[in-house]
Design a protein that fits this description.
This protein has 168 residues and is mainly alpha-helical. The chain is built from seven helices and no strands. The mean pLDDT is 76.
Protein backbone atom coordinates (compact mmCIF):
# COMPACT_ATOMS: atom_id res chain seq x y z
CA UNK A 1 0.00 0.00 0.00
CA UNK A 2 2.88 2.34 0.76
CA UNK A 3 4.20 2.22 -2.81
CA UNK A 4 0.68 2.81 -4.12
CA UNK A 5 0.43 5.97 -2.02
CA UNK A 6 3.85 7.29 -3.06
CA UNK A 7 3.49 6.48 -6.75
CA UNK A 8 0.04 7.92 -7.25
CA UNK A 9 0.71 10.80 -4.88
CA UNK A 10 3.65 11.85 -7.03
CA UNK A 11 1.85 11.29 -10.32
CA UNK A 12 -1.27 13.16 -9.20
CA UNK A 13 0.83 15.99 -7.78
CA UNK A 14 2.72 16.47 -11.03
CA UNK A 15 -0.23 16.02 -13.38
CA UNK A 16 -1.55 19.18 -14.92
CA UNK A 17 0.06 21.59 -12.49
CA UNK A 18 1.03 25.04 -13.49
CA UNK A 19 4.47 26.39 -12.70
CA UNK A 20 4.84 27.05 -8.98
CA UNK A 21 5.20 30.79 -9.53
CA UNK A 22 1.70 30.95 -11.05
CA UNK A 23 0.00 28.75 -8.48
CA UNK A 24 -1.02 29.93 -5.04
CA UNK A 25 -0.83 27.21 -2.36
CA UNK A 26 -4.44 27.83 -1.25
CA UNK A 27 -5.71 26.88 -4.72
CA UNK A 28 -3.63 23.73 -4.67
CA UNK A 29 -4.85 22.68 -1.23
CA UNK A 30 -8.49 23.08 -2.27
CA UNK A 31 -7.83 20.97 -5.36
CA UNK A 32 -6.09 18.30 -3.26
CA UNK A 33 -8.98 18.11 -0.77
CA UNK A 34 -11.58 17.94 -3.55
CA UNK A 35 -9.71 15.20 -5.43
CA UNK A 36 -9.11 13.24 -2.22
CA UNK A 37 -12.80 13.23 -1.43
CA UNK A 38 -13.58 12.18 -5.02
CA UNK A 39 -11.00 9.40 -4.85
CA UNK A 40 -12.30 8.10 -1.52
CA UNK A 41 -15.95 8.20 -2.56
CA UNK A 42 -15.28 6.55 -5.91
CA UNK A 43 -13.23 3.76 -4.35
CA UNK A 44 -15.79 3.25 -1.56
CA UNK A 45 -18.71 3.11 -3.98
CA UNK A 46 -17.02 0.52 -6.18
CA UNK A 47 -15.97 -1.56 -3.17
CA UNK A 48 -19.55 -1.46 -1.87
CA UNK A 49 -20.93 -2.49 -5.28
CA UNK A 50 -18.42 -5.33 -5.41
CA UNK A 51 -19.43 -6.49 -1.91
CA UNK A 52 -23.15 -6.35 -2.76
CA UNK A 53 -22.58 -8.29 -5.97
CA UNK A 54 -20.47 -10.89 -4.16
CA UNK A 55 -23.22 -11.30 -1.55
CA UNK A 56 -25.82 -12.31 -4.10
CA UNK A 57 -26.09 -16.05 -4.73
CA UNK A 58 -26.97 -15.73 -8.42
CA UNK A 59 -23.95 -13.66 -9.44
CA UNK A 60 -21.32 -14.86 -6.95
CA UNK A 61 -19.44 -17.01 -9.48
CA UNK A 62 -19.51 -14.30 -12.13
CA UNK A 63 -18.26 -11.70 -9.67
CA UNK A 64 -15.41 -13.96 -8.64
CA UNK A 65 -14.32 -14.55 -12.22
CA UNK A 66 -14.85 -11.07 -13.62
CA UNK A 67 -14.20 -8.88 -10.58
CA UNK A 68 -11.34 -6.91 -12.15
CA UNK A 69 -13.33 -6.29 -15.31
CA UNK A 70 -16.42 -5.28 -13.31
CA UNK A 71 -14.78 -2.72 -11.07
CA UNK A 72 -12.67 -1.55 -14.01
CA UNK A 73 -15.80 -0.71 -15.99
CA UNK A 74 -17.41 0.90 -12.94
CA UNK A 75 -14.30 2.97 -12.24
CA UNK A 76 -14.07 4.04 -15.88
CA UNK A 77 -17.71 5.12 -16.01
CA UNK A 78 -17.50 6.98 -12.69
CA UNK A 79 -14.30 8.78 -13.66
CA UNK A 80 -15.77 9.80 -17.03
CA UNK A 81 -18.93 11.00 -15.31
CA UNK A 82 -16.83 13.14 -12.95
CA UNK A 83 -14.73 14.37 -15.93
CA UNK A 84 -11.52 13.11 -14.32
CA UNK A 85 -8.31 12.22 -16.10
CA UNK A 86 -7.07 8.77 -16.97
CA UNK A 87 -4.59 8.96 -14.10
CA UNK A 88 -7.50 9.25 -11.65
CA UNK A 89 -9.10 6.20 -13.26
CA UNK A 90 -5.85 4.25 -13.07
CA UNK A 91 -5.28 5.19 -9.42
CA UNK A 92 -8.82 4.07 -8.53
CA UNK A 93 -8.30 0.75 -10.32
CA UNK A 94 -4.93 0.12 -8.65
CA UNK A 95 -6.28 1.13 -5.25
CA UNK A 96 -9.33 -1.10 -5.49
CA UNK A 97 -7.28 -4.04 -6.71
CA UNK A 98 -4.79 -3.72 -3.85
CA UNK A 99 -7.47 -3.17 -1.22
CA UNK A 100 -9.75 -5.98 -2.37
CA UNK A 101 -6.83 -8.41 -2.54
CA UNK A 102 -5.85 -7.69 1.08
CA UNK A 103 -9.22 -7.33 2.86
CA UNK A 104 -12.45 -9.26 2.71
CA UNK A 105 -14.64 -7.23 5.07
CA UNK A 106 -16.40 -4.20 3.57
CA UNK A 107 -15.82 -1.93 6.57
CA UNK A 108 -12.09 -2.73 6.58
CA UNK A 109 -11.92 -2.15 2.83
CA UNK A 110 -13.55 1.27 3.15
CA UNK A 111 -11.27 2.16 6.06
CA UNK A 112 -8.23 1.17 4.00
CA UNK A 113 -9.56 3.22 1.07
CA UNK A 114 -9.73 6.21 3.42
CA UNK A 115 -6.17 5.59 4.60
CA UNK A 116 -4.89 5.36 1.02
CA UNK A 117 -6.79 8.51 0.00
CA UNK A 118 -5.51 10.42 3.04
CA UNK A 119 -1.96 9.21 2.38
CA UNK A 120 -2.10 10.41 -1.21
CA UNK A 121 -3.49 13.75 -0.04
CA UNK A 122 -0.74 14.08 2.59
CA UNK A 123 1.93 13.38 -0.02
CA UNK A 124 0.43 15.91 -2.42
CA UNK A 125 0.11 18.59 0.28
CA UNK A 126 3.70 18.12 1.42
CA UNK A 127 4.91 18.17 -2.16
CA UNK A 128 2.95 21.33 -2.96
CA UNK A 129 4.22 23.11 0.13
CA UNK A 130 7.84 22.18 -0.43
CA UNK A 131 7.59 23.06 -4.11
CA UNK A 132 6.22 26.49 -3.25
CA UNK A 133 8.88 26.98 -0.55
CA UNK A 134 11.59 26.01 -3.04
CA UNK A 135 10.45 28.81 -5.32
CA UNK A 136 11.39 31.47 -2.76
CA UNK A 137 14.62 29.90 -1.54
CA UNK A 138 18.17 30.64 -2.64
CA UNK A 139 18.52 27.48 -4.70
CA UNK A 140 20.12 28.13 -8.11
CA UNK A 141 17.67 28.38 -11.00
CA UNK A 142 19.15 25.35 -12.75
CA UNK A 143 18.27 23.18 -9.74
CA UNK A 144 14.65 24.34 -9.35
CA UNK A 145 13.31 21.87 -11.90
CA UNK A 146 13.03 18.10 -11.99
CA UNK A 147 16.16 17.24 -9.97
CA UNK A 148 14.91 19.04 -6.90
CA UNK A 149 11.32 17.82 -7.37
CA UNK A 150 12.46 14.20 -7.49
CA UNK A 151 14.70 14.79 -4.47
CA UNK A 152 11.76 16.30 -2.57
CA UNK A 153 9.54 13.37 -3.53
CA UNK A 154 12.21 10.98 -2.26
CA UNK A 155 12.46 12.80 1.07
CA UNK A 156 8.68 12.89 1.49
CA UNK A 157 8.47 9.17 0.71
CA UNK A 158 11.10 8.40 3.36
CA UNK A 159 9.19 10.40 5.96
CA UNK A 160 5.90 8.73 5.04
CA UNK A 161 7.62 5.34 5.10
CA UNK A 162 8.74 6.00 8.66
CA UNK A 163 5.21 7.06 9.64
CA UNK A 164 3.74 4.03 7.87
CA UNK A 165 6.07 1.63 9.70
CA UNK A 166 5.40 3.18 13.07
CA UNK A 167 1.62 3.30 12.57
CA UNK A 168 1.08 -0.08 10.92
Amino acid sequence: MYFLIITFGFLLAMRGTRPASLQRPAEGFRRIVRETIDLFLTMSLILALLAVAAGSEEVRTGVGEYAVLGFGIAAYLLSRYQKKTDLFFFSVIAGIFMISSKQRNLSEEILLAGVVSAGIALFQACFLGLRYKLLFSSVPVSMKGWPSLCLLAGFISMVLWGLWNSAF
